[in-house]
Design goal:
mainly alpha; 6 helices; 77% helix
C-alpha cells in the first residue's frame, strides 16, 4: 500500500510539472506568434489559465503533504503536549473538511459549468473546474494519511 501511495504522490508531482511545462511551451508559442508572425492565438491564454487552475488545486495537497503551508506555531507552541496534540489534530481535521468541501462544491460547480463551452478552446467549462474535485480528493487522501499516521501527535515545536 505504501508503494502505491508513494507512486500516487510522485504522479501528482509529475503531473503538476508536466502541466507547467505545457504552460511554458504555450506561452513561448504565443509570444512567437504575436511578435514574429504578427498573429495572435485565440486559445493560448485560455489554455494557460486552465493549466494554472489545475496546478493550484493539485499543488495544495502536494504542499500540505510536504508541510510547506503556513502553520499557527505561536499559539500552539505555548500549549503543553496533550492540548498541543489536540490542536494539531484539529488542524488536520480542518484540512480534511476543506478537502471534502472542495470536492463537493467543485463537483456542483463543474456539473453546472458543463453546460457552457469555453470560447477559445471550445471545451466544456467543467474541465477546468474538475481540477477542484481531483485536487480535493487528493487532499482528502493526504489528510487521511496524516491523521491515521499520527502526524498530529509528532509535530515538533518549529516544524511545519
Amino acid at each position: 500500500m505504501r508503494r502505491v501511495l508513494d507512486a500516487l504522490d510522485r504522479g501528482a508531482e509529475w503531473l503538476v510539472a508536466a502541466i507547467f511545462a505545457v504552460i511554458v511551451c504555450i506561452a513561448l508559442l504565443q509570444v512567437f506568434n504575436r511578435f514574429a508572425l504578427n498573429a495572435s492565438l485565440s486559445w493560448s491564454e485560455e489554455a494557460q489559465i486552465f493549466g494554472h487552475i489545475w496546478i493550484v488545486f493539485l499543488g495544495i495537497p502536494i504542499a500540505y503533504r510536504r508541510g510547506a503551508h503556513l502553520y499557527i506555531e505561536t499559539f500552539c507552541d505555548m500549549l503543553p503536549a496533550p492540548p498541543r496534540a489536540a490542536f494539531n489534530l484539529m488542524v488536520e481535521l480542518t484540512w480534511a473538511a476543506f478537502a471534502v468541501s472542495l470536492m463537493v462544491l467543485g463537483f456542483m460547480v463543474a456539473r453546472v459549468a458543463h453546460l457552457q463551452s469555453s470560447p477559445g478552446l471550445e471545451l466544456p467549462m467543467s474541465y477546468p473546474y474538475a481540477g477542484m474535485v481531483v485536487g480535493g480528493a487528493y487532499l482528502l487522501l493526504v489528510a487521511a494519511r496524516r491523521i491515521i499516521g499520527g502526524a498530529w501527535r509528532t509535530r515538533q515545536v518549529g516544524a511545519a
